[in-house]
């Protein structure tokens, strides 16, 4: 790392992790624990392979040069536990996680059907095994990575030791060929879906994948939409518009990738309709934040309509297409149906309407009466009514 903040100073210093000197036996204990945890999880991975009808060593090569690591977590008492989380909602990205925890409790898992958070009661002298994203992909969704989090309390501190069993960095994570067929296509990496990816430098990005498949009119439209989105976002630079980092395509792969900046707070729709914040309030987001979100979306649409040349009409503004960063700043996303206009006020004809039901941009419809209505009004009604 640089030894000074001076950009012209090229002198660097190398820092290495060191074991505590005051407890020499601590290092040996940790190494012995990680070796034992790795052995247990490798055996469990072999049993999982057999449960899938595969040879027991089918996944061994994937974890041969594993990037596993262990954490020693301490969650101190929190004076206001209703306002904080020990660890926010997430899924483990690796293959398996071996968790040892004390009897205080705090681990919660999220139900898929209703979004409810359920506490995982600690069992003495036992471990919690968590399926990671890699195993879900390998098994073609037969095993599922569960969303979970850690809550805190105001009376007792909590200790936990998770061991994350991760594959080699050179492994391509995709469904196993033996588990994929025409009757059972890949469940993960579905065309048009968006995935969170953590890069090697720790930065998180969002990736939308569109597969090229000749003969499928639906997928051809998806490819056309992703090309429209890439061409549109390439022209836009605004704080209220989701930033497109790059577009990846090649003649050697059968899909396209759009790489975006990652929005850690998801979509506005999640917060308005089914996002659980462990709060008794009917409205999860307080009014100042809602006002700021509406203002940010308005600034973004105003930029598209009045500051871009030619003007850009989004044509599908709704709460699911308004994304929120870690500071709850609004970003307009999903420009697959957008259209460029020489003059936004000019009339034009369409062979059919586009967009989601109930969210068709009013400014493209010919009304017999003239009255002030805009695409933003649809979004605003959806948000607050």
From TrEMBL:
Transmembrane segments: none annotated. The keyword Oxidoreductase applies. Belongs to the iron/ascorbate-dependent oxidoreductase family. Residues 66-167 form the Fe2OG dioxygenase domain. This is Protein kinase domain-containing protein. Residues 180-385 form the Protein kinase domain. Keywords: Glycoprotein, Iron, Leucine-rich repeat, Metal-binding, Oxidoreductase, Repeat. Pfam families: 2OG-FeII_Oxy (PF03171), Pkinase (PF00069). One of its GO terms (molecular function) is protein kinase activity. InterPro entries: IPNS-like_FE2OG_OXY, IPNS-like_sf, Kinase-like_dom_sf, Oxoglu/Fe-dep_dioxygenase_dom, Plant_LRR-RLKs, Prot_kinase_dom, Ser/Thr_kinase_AS. The keyword Cell division does not apply. The lineage of its organism: Eukaryota, Viridiplantae, Streptophyta, Embryophyta, Tracheophyta. It comes from the Eukaryota.
